[in-house]
Amino acid sequence: MNAYTPIPLLLILSTAIALAQAAPSNVVKYHATIKNVKYVYASAEPVARLKSGDILDTNTLDCFGNAIKKPGDTLSMTKGDNPLTGPFYIEGAEPGDTLAVKILDLEVDGDQGVGAFAPGFGALNETNYTPMLHPPLPEKIWFYPIDHAANTATFQALDSKFSVKIPLHPFFGCIAWIIHEVSSQKRKDALKGMMNTGFLHPAFPFGASIA
């Protein structure tokens, strides 16, 4: 089962050769919507440009592009999985540099989380990457109401009265980077197949640094 909520994020960006030592002086703000998110970075133009030490202040969408909102909604309503905010161009970065990203803050701005699986999708079903022995499980969608004051989300089973409160631990659904130039269609196709270079891991909450 996959469960995600939309989060705004605050990042500080730097290259290894010019790591900012003083307090950042420039904040670049960006607002993501379903009309400007990307599903492949390889051929996308930058939506903003940042310099070493700048802070990026932006929101993100959930893994379904905020399309699943109420009982009766289906996965067919989504444009794709894990929409990406950006890309953001880093001024002064050169081949061979290391890009360091520090996550300064993550806040959940939605009132519910969403979890789902369907044939070909989800941790309990066979996918292109994970074979399973059992027949595909039919599509199911769960909603997790969020209590911001208590910092919890509530799971309610679909086939019983069982429920449990789950502590919130916001982290990135995906974070990715791409090379400066994509010089050929073959290279674009290769990057699309790899879904760019990136992470999907709960070890990237606020306060984490990625290089």
Topology summary:
Blueprint: E1 2-4, E2 8-15, E3 27-30, E4 48-50, E5 55-59, E6 88-90, E7 99-106, E8 112-117, E9 140-147, E10 152-156, E11 163-167, E12 175-177, H1 185-194, E13 197-199, E14 209-210
Parallel strand pairs: 3-5, 4-6
Antiparallel strand pairs: 1-8, 2-5, 2-7, 7-14, 8-9, 9-10, 10-11, 12-13
Describe the structure.
The protein is mainly beta. It has one domain. The chain contains one helix and 14 strands. It has one helix at 185-194; strands at 2-4, 8-15, 27-30, 48-50, 55-59, 88-90, 99-106, 112-117, 140-147, 152-156, 163-167, 175-177, 197-199, 209-210. Strand 10 and strand 11 (163-167) form a beta hairpin.
Task: Provide keyphrases for this structure.
mainly beta; 211 residues; five-stranded antiparallel β-sheet
Strand content: 25-35%
**Helical content class:** under 10%
Integer count of domains: 1
- Spatial shape: globular
* Coarse structural class: mainly beta
Main-sheet strand order equals 1-8-9-10-11
Rg value: 19 Å
Query: Overall mean pLDDT score?
Result: 79
- By DSSP (H or I, 4+ residues per run), the number of helices equals 1
Q: What is the string of SSEs from the N terminus onward?
A: EEEEEEEEEEEEHEE
List the uncertain runs.
1-24, 185-199
Please report the distance between the alpha carbons of the first and last residues: 29 Å
Largest sheet: 5 strands, antiparallel
Q: How many strands appear in the DSSP assignment?
A: 14
